[in-house]
Amino acid sequence: MNAKRGTYGELKSVPERDMKMIRNLVNGAAQADKVDEHGAWEFGCEFDNKGRGSALNWDVYGYGRDRHDRRFLAVIQVRQFVRQRKNWFPQIRKSYFLLGRNEDKSIFAHAVQSAVVHRAIRDNADVVRRVQKWIFGCDYERVIRHGDIALVPLSRQPAAPVVDTDTLAIGPSDNSASHELSADEIRQNGNLYAKNPHLTHAPGTHPDVAGAGWYRVMIGRRAATYDFAAPTID
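^ thats the sequence. predicted structure below, dont judge the formating
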């Protein structure tokens, strides 16, 4: 992608066809009904006659196609500007998200670290691929993805204690353990491993996936977000 970037790394020259797809993702994420407890995004601005108020807007930092399913993805910054008093310095807060569509066409917004985005820009690297690598902590091209869970193939049996179950509910937290892992054998030592794993998504957003052999089960990392910009829930 040889697009021109602005002072802060944002893309300034996105072809209209691509920009239309990005806007559709942003609008869909802003209106998503599966967001966390903070609620959806509300873009726009409101200031009084003394210049006090707030604004919420967004910029594009990267876009491309998923290496596995070829779905369109975008990395955006959601930025809040707040001025509480006329002569005060404004408060500016930023969150970054990977946007895309799930298998059922619903839109996801996965919070990612700003440092990962800007490091990719400095390295003149693919921002989307760097973000995906950060989420799963490995080469994204190697994984079998299931929403925000990934199966990473291993070349040998892991040296970890066997878990006394062949089924586990997993997810980013105990409150969002929406994936069911079943396997011939499960091992755990801080990391989670499964032999011949099978993943099912309880809400049904993602179709089942399975692997043959040993895999490390990775739960995708999410960056912290401000309450003005909520991620979606997988």
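Residues 146-219 form one domain.
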